[in-house]
Amino acid sequence: MTKLTATQQKALALDKNISVTAGAGSGKTAILVERFLKIVSRDAGKVRRVLAITFTKKAVAEMRERVAEQINKLLDKSPAQEQNKLLQVRDHLNSASISTIHSFCASVLREFPLEAGLAPDFNEMDELRSEVFKYEAVDRAFESLEQLPQDKETDWMSFFLALNTAKIRKALKAMLDKPYEMEQIESRFGQMKEEDWRSFLHNIWLEKIRQIVQPWVVEEAIGQAGSILRDCPVPSHEDGSTVHRLLTQFVREQKTANEIEKYKILVRVIQTFTTQKGTAYKNLGKLGTNAGWPQEKRALLVELSEFCAQWAPQILQAGLAPPPGEEDEQWFKYFRMLLHLYEITREDYTRQKKEIGVVDYEDLLLLTLHLLRSNEAVRSELASRFDFIMVDEFQDTNELQWEIIRLLAVENGEPAGDKVFIVGDPKQSIYAFRNADVRVFKNVKRDFARSAGHSDVKQYAGNIIFEDSFRFLPVLNGFINFVFSHILQEDPANPFTVEYNPLVSKRELPGKGQIELALLESEQPVKEEALYMARSIRYLLDNKITCFKWREDKEEETDIKYGDIAILLRGRTHLLQIEQTLRDHGIPFKTVSGIGFWQKQEIYDFYHILRFLNSPDDDFALLAVLRSTFFIIADHILLRFTQMPGDTLVEKLRQFTAQTDATAQDEETNALLKAAVLIDKWLHLRERLPLEDLLHRIIDDLRLRSVLAAQINGEQLIANIDKLIEAAQGFSSSGAGGLSDFLYYLEDLMDKSEKEGEAPLIQEDDSTVKIITIHSAKGLQFPVVFLPFLNQGKSGRSSGIYLEPENGLAVNLAGENNNAGFYYYRHLRRIARQREEAEKRRLFYVAITRARDYLFLSAAIKNNKPEDNTPLAWLQESFLKGEYDLFAEESIEHPDFKLRIVRQVPPVEKEEKESTGFFKEVEQLEQFVRDYRPVPKEAALLEGGMGPIVFSATRIMTYLHDPQEYYRRYHLGFFEHDYEVFARDIYKSDLSLLKGKLVHRYLELLDQSPADREALIHNILFEYEVYDEKLRREFFDELRETEQRALESEKGRKILHAAEARNETSITVRLGEDFLTGSIDRLYRNEQGLWEVVDYKTNRINPTALNREAKKYEWQMKTYALQVSRLYPQQEVYPVSLYFLHPDLLYKVEYSREEIEKITDELLQTIREIKTKFPFIAS
């Protein structure tokens, strides 16, 4: 067998339950394989008596492969007798119970379906269809409330006003997502009475306040309050008299009140005598002023304030002020109503699943647990099959999963003492969003020790810690130990924290490797960090810097390749900038698993194809298909066939095909004819082929894989198409319906599943740098890792819904912000924040421990200091404790490592390497644009004329401003949306452009979601992929300021509160043989009954410059007026307003019918001029 360390040998013991804490690179997978082989090597029949559980299908396949690989190695070294045993083990390997927890539970339910209450032929429902069912159940639960008896309407009206509809929907969805946790909550709180609730809440609060405020503090505060009140008249100042009354009550009630009331009034005193931040008052301004109090009492008041300030910060941080009160009792009533609504929702969701004979992902676990708990015969049968249970990646488990495993290890009513082996690394527990709970690992270790008679986990021989690491070079190992011994520390006040166990490097390559930290000050911080990474990568490759790789049981030095490098990101906020910078430097890369799968253009294109095939009369769908990237039919060609006779576009297309001679037509017309042939073919096949086969046929007919492969991100596009086909196969196999049902399914997913990831790509190649999220990188390692943006905080967006099985559920009430809320809500929020804070630190650990040889860290800084609670701040705190200052050193020489600190982006020491393939083409394209020739006076006219053109206001304005720019942008074909070429221009105004989009989107949706504007903003920020915490705060404040400014303004209220209005209205009108198109921000009926256009302007201007600024948009206003005149020809005038949100100014022009005619003539003349000036083919 493999040579193991002494500690690893201990983990092979079969006489006790064992928990292994395996640090990064310490041989976790190897010990699982060796333990499995030790169990089965003497008796091949034992293969079936080992249950091995892990949490991904990839890990299952890897474990099987590693076992088979190890057997093959042993066969070469073993005598004949041992070889026979090993061959038997290998032959039985396919029957080994190595699976994910979900696969194992599915096999149990299929073996015992009737006992579990399932149909024998049940199917597993995919996660996305489950989402659709849940939303439908929520909708029907709301509909059920329409049948309420009259005497209940008032209560439910109060409920909806307090929580608002959007929050209730989210809460119900969150509850459906966690059925196991909800069972616990219902069991504990479902039948609870109000007095029990009050007692439960007070006990929680009292326990927490006692930990902060000792009894002597209360006595001291009473003494100081008594000194102030002694011989002190009531101050005449209102604030002073309030303080006097409070202190009087405080002193009096300490003699008569119970403990909870004593502490409550003490907290009121502490709040009154300190600032909102918990600091002492420097004067008596907030306590009644100096003049309001006698001279001899003033110093005593300040002294009490200083005393209270010793405890106020801890009380505020723990969320203990204000104490439980009326709002908490009101919430309990709402909570009971929410539970009632949840029961309706859950029953509906269950009914939907039963109707089509499916179970969801959570059902697999929950139904198995119910089966094991309720049917002892089944539990005993399953438990007796396995002599040993091994669980990998145990830090990613949760209580539900562990309870299933635990029940399989019970023998004769008692937990077996030698059956269970768990291995994992609590420091790498980063999947709380998938319900992983790091506390389970700690609790199970404790339970193992107690079952063996040990009160101290560290005394139990089965608690094993792997300290030897085979991943890191010594320099990296030393850095990791130094940093994380400070960052990761177990805190009794936070149950989600874990301790750090130092690692010992087993790679004997001292002096090799490098750690670098770039602290960059720049006006464009994101661009600067992206440039730092690109230049550093080029340096590594151009200078043939080496790394080490294992070849035949030894490490060999080899040149770093692109495939050895990974850029790890916490989010995708800055992904586009990184990608473009890598392109600029000729660096090939692969972005692994982006998000927003169902909103990708290739998915929309397929949706439109299927929508048309399902309903051939759907003109919009057919038009979308023809204009999609699958056919790219020009608008003037589309116009020709739409003029044919027929009631629908498909009839017109058939007429056009029948009357057109393909042999005599130009290439664009032939493209339409070919499209028509394919569309007819698919219409004939739609009823004859299964859904997934139809999709395959469409892909083959379009030669889509070849077309997509030629694009920049072709591999990702193809993977996404394959993922769509998998979804179709899953839908068909579930028996959920045909094409029309799948379309309904797709529409729901595109509308609601914003977080669905793109299809994963194959990562193992040497030719590309990997850009990957830290979560996706877990389990991987790279010789070189870049970890940027360390000075940016990132936290998940809070939904305002907190669900804790031990403590219940709370939703913030309408009108409350993140710093307020009733006590119970603050209590659950604090638990959630503790979990999030602990996991953020572990995420940083996971990121850094992906590096084997080289680690490059970077952070954009201001004023030479870190932002609060960021990875950079944690690093600085760690180094300060070691008496080093990151911001004052050029390098840090520690006995175990050297940290190089750079302050600027490295220069390019060699000439830029010539790009190859696509990158070379892009460079040539950009060069062509930069070096364009002026429009030739003599040019070849397009044969047959130009045909109709669709003009926008922007296109017209571009020509009037700069004809050469118009030629370059539109005639050469480089449109605004051609991101790949013009991305760097976009980034010049990245944030201002994004801010404008956010404001427009917010104002568009504001009147649709008036009750929950905070949630609306968070949804918009997610929609535009703004994940950086600092940017989120900035944009959040900007949107709330814009909203407040607009709603406090009479002009803004008239616009936003109009009874009749439309947002983001797209209008296209004919101008001669051409078209004029545009999108109007808001079209509303004003007080005069006229439809008025409003265009929002987000650029901040000086009020004195209003007319000058508005003049820039003259043609935009004119085109809006013309377009609206075609919609409402009966109006006498057409008002168009530019609403400059900062500083709340309206620039309004009313266009008469005569002026509209003049505008029409001017536009026609301009268009004729454009088509006359540019009727040529660029040669």
UniProtKB/TrEMBL annotation:
Residues 487-779 form the UvrD-like helicase C-terminal domain. Its EC number is 5.6.2.4. Residues 1-473 form the UvrD-like helicase ATP-binding domain. ATP binds at residues 22-29. It catalyses: ATP + H2O = ADP + phosphate + H(+); Couples ATP hydrolysis with the unwinding of duplex DNA by translocating in the 3'-5' direction. GO terms for molecular function: 3'-5' DNA helicase activity; ATP binding; DNA binding; exonuclease activity. It comes from the Bacteria. Keywords: ATP-binding, DNA damage, DNA repair, DNA-binding, Exonuclease, Helicase, Hydrolase, Isomerase, Nuclease, Nucleotide-binding. It is an enzyme of class 5 (isomerase). This is DNA 3'-5' helicase. It comes from Caldithrix abyssi. The lineage of its organism: Bacteria, Pseudomonadati, Calditrichota, Calditrichia, Calditrichales.
